[in-house]
Design goal:
The complex is a heterodimer of chains A (about 240) and B (about 375). By secondary structure, chain A is α/β, with parallel strands linked by helices. Helix content of chain A is about 30%, strand content about 25%. Chain A has a domain of about 160 residues: P-loop containing nucleotide triphosphate hydrolases (Rossmann fold), CATH 3.40.50.300. Chain A contains seven helices and ten strands. In chain A, a hairpin with a 4-residue loop joins strand 1 and strand 2. In chain A, helix 4 packs across helix 5. Chain A is globular and about 45 Å long. Chain B has about 375 residues and is of the alpha+beta class. Chain B has two domains: about 170 residues, no CATH class; about 170 residues, no CATH class. In chain B, strands 1, 3, 4, 5, 6, 7, 8, 9, 11 and 12 form a ten-stranded mixed beta sheet that branches. In chain B, a hairpin with a 2-residue loop joins strand 7 and strand 8. Classes of the chains: A alpha/beta (about 240), B alpha+beta (about 375). Chains A and B meet through helix 1, helix 2 and helix 3 of A and helix 1 and helix 9 of B.
């Protein structure tokens, strides 16, 4: 079911056609022919129950895995055929994970610095940018704290700052509020929405929470490896 | 924060494990420094001893056996006349236990030969003649035996008077008991036998000239070998054995070090596979992960090497003062040996890091989305 019309004016960031992903030599079908287009600057929520294929789809978009069949284009180019998928991950996209995935032996500012080793900036420029990013997520007082000394919400803010390190045009967020209490979840969603608007980034967010999905401008609902709804999040129902 | 900070942070995650691994490498490197230092010291000490005596060529019969094989003293007559030979001195060297000292060098020298000339008397005098039952002690030998001029020293069944204490200008010379050749021949039952002929070339003879003379002497004395002073020890069976044992033991220690570091780095990679996957997901190239693991491993090796050199120096000092060795040889703790030790330790680190680095580079970044 596809109710969504991609705005003609915005160039496409991702185009998927007949996307299939199988595991265990075809015994497990994670994606069973997925088609969609995502335009530049969209905020898309991908929803669905566990095992519906949403995380597998995110892996494809982040070049963490390759499809078994079908095509997946990033700005018109075949993503699985990218020779340097590390450069794609370093410069084109930013990842935000459910469990934050900060490196425990590094401080907040050092965690934000990590993706910047893949760019040509000087050490002092990198540090200045990392501090600036932490300030932009409201953590200027916590730059030298280790993750163990930060609250869940603060950790996710550090992870968000880290995802912005190399100024990507796309943010991929895997259940970013999944490990947070409701108050922190709202703050993180507000922050992501703010960043999406302010930086005009494409934001693709995976969630199983309908409340979170409704903050997006578009929702893609998945079930058993297929898209069962693609359209206005306000029309999304738990049973669709 | 630099890449090196990232590398060092990896090592300090588990300080006890890192410390123990470092100690493992250090013990291996200490073994290298101590054993190789001793075996090299054997050559440098004896070479220095011969240089101080002014010996350019040594005629000996040591190659095929572990200890010098005595040969007739008359052998000297076949080479003494050669052009280019300024002087010769028959020598009989023996290593034996003397009183409380487990091993001492006894150097019987032809009476009136040039091998006596380097002795600078700290106290006492030369023996009056070659049959006087007297010895001259090197300064270290006097310390080891706790003797002074006027005392006696028991060598086998003979009680000999200490008539002089002399500085021979080299470690081995100072560790020796010097006596006349006939006296030592008599004590050891080697009448008319010698273990070496020290040959002094005419002034200005270059290395090529020395080599040519050696060739000529070896042709004239097929039962012995003539070689430039110092080199003759390198080619002996005894030195080869010491050297092989030193390197063999060192190699074993190094292999243990390699296994230790490999184990540590593998554990570290297994523990961090999720973090490595996160770094890959954040855009780190696999080659950067490989560099990180190899650098961690090399740094571990280098630090182990530095500690090992320190331990090796302590080990050398302990061995140097051990009663069995004191005065026999001065361990060679040269810059060259330290550089070899550092190179070995870094190589141990890098070599140990290859497999863990390869394992880490095989990790898939999608692991980051799980867990």
């Amino acid at each position: 079911m596809n109710n969504h019309e991609t705005p003609a004016a915005s160039p496409l960031v991702f185009e998927a056609a007949g996307l299939v992903k199988e595991f265990d030599e075809g015994a497990v079908h994670a994606l069973r022919g997925v088609d969609f287009q995502i335009a530049d600057g969209e905020f898309v929520a991908i929803v669905g129950p566990s095992g519906s294929g949403k995380t597998t789809l995110l892996q494809m978009l982040g070049a963490l895995d390759r499809p078994s069949a079908g095509t997946l284009l990033y700005r018109g180019k075949s993503l699985p055929d990218f020779k340097d998928d590390a450069a794609y991950r370093a410069h084109e996209i930013g990842f935000i994970f459910q469990s934050f995935h900060l490196l425990p032996t590094f401080t907040a500012v050092e965690n934000v610095l990590m993706p910047m080793f893949e760019n040509d900036q000087s050490g002092s420029d990198r540090t200045a940018r990392a501090r600036e990013l932490l300030k932009s997520v409201g953590l200027e007082q916590r730059v030298n704290h280790f993750p163990s000394k930060l609250s869940g919400g603060e950790r996710q803010r550090v992870a968000i700052a880290r995802s912005l390190a190399n100024s990507p045009s796309v943010l991929l967020a895997d259940e970013p509020t999944g490990n947070l209490d409701s108050e922190n979840a709202v703050h993180i969603l507000d922050l992501l929405t703010h960043l999406h608007r302010q930086r005009r980034m494409t934001l693709i967010l995976i969630t199983h929470d309908m409340m979170v999905a409704r903050r997006a401008s578009r929702a893609i609902q998945m079930k058993d490896g297929r898209i069962v709804f693609d359209g206005d999040p306000s029309k999304l129902t738990a049973n669709s | 924060m630099t890449f090196l900070n990232v590398v060092t942070r990896g090592l300090w995650r588990r300080p006890i494990r890192t410390g123990l691994t470092l100690l493992g490498i250090a013990v291996g490197i200490a073994a290298v420094v101590t054993l190789i230092g001793m075996s090299r010291g054997f050559i440098t000490s004896w070479t220095a001893g011969m240089k101080s005596r002014g010996t350019d060529i040594v005629v000996h019969n040591m190659r095929g056996s572990l200890t010098p094989q005595p040969f007739p003293a008359s052998t000297r007559d076949r080479i003494a006349h050669l052009p280019g030979v300024a002087g010769t001195c028959n020598i009989l060297v023996n290593l034996m236990s003397v009183e409380t000292a487990e091993l001492m060098i006894l150097s019987g020298r032809e009476w009136g030969g040039f091998a006596w000339d380097n002795l600078k008397f700290v106290s006492g005098r030369m023996p009056n003649d070659q049959m006087e039952k007297a010895v001259v002690l090197g300064t270290t030998a006097a310390e080891v035996l706790k003797k002074k001029v006027g005392d006696t020293v028991q060598i086998e069944t003979e009680e000999l008077a200490v008539v002089g204490i002399a500085d021979g200008g080299a470690f081995v010379e100072n560790g020796s008991i010097v006596l006349s050749l006939p006296l030592l021949q008599q004590i050891t039952g080697n009448q008319d036998k010698i273990s070496a002929i020290d040959v002094r070339c005419v002034a200005g003879t270059d290395q090529a000239g020395i080599a040519k003379l050696c060739e000529e002497m070896s042709r004239l004395i097929p039962e012995a070998h003539a070689e430039p002073a110092g080199e003759h020890l390198v080619h002996t069976e005894g030195y080869r054995m010491i050297n092989a044992m030193s390197w063999g033991t060192s190699l074993l220690a190094v292999i243990v070090g390699v296994l230790g570091v490999t184990n540590t780095m593998l554990m570290s990679v297994f523990e961090r596979q999720h973090e490595i996957a996160i770094l890959l997901a954040l855009g780190w190239r696999r080659i950067r992960i490989v560099r990180m693991i190899l650098l961690e491993s090399a740094l571990l090796g280098l630090l182990g090497g530095i500690v090992g050199i320190g331990l090796g120096v302590v080990g050398i000092q302990l061995m140097k003062s051990a009663p069995a060795i004191r005065g026999l040889l001065e361990p060679d703790l040269s810059l060259n040996l330290i550089l070899i030790a550092v190179t070995i330790s870094v190589c141990v680190g890098v070599l140990s890091g290859f497999y863990p680095a390869w394992r880490s580079s095989r990790l898939t970044p999608s692991l980051a989305l799980h867990g």
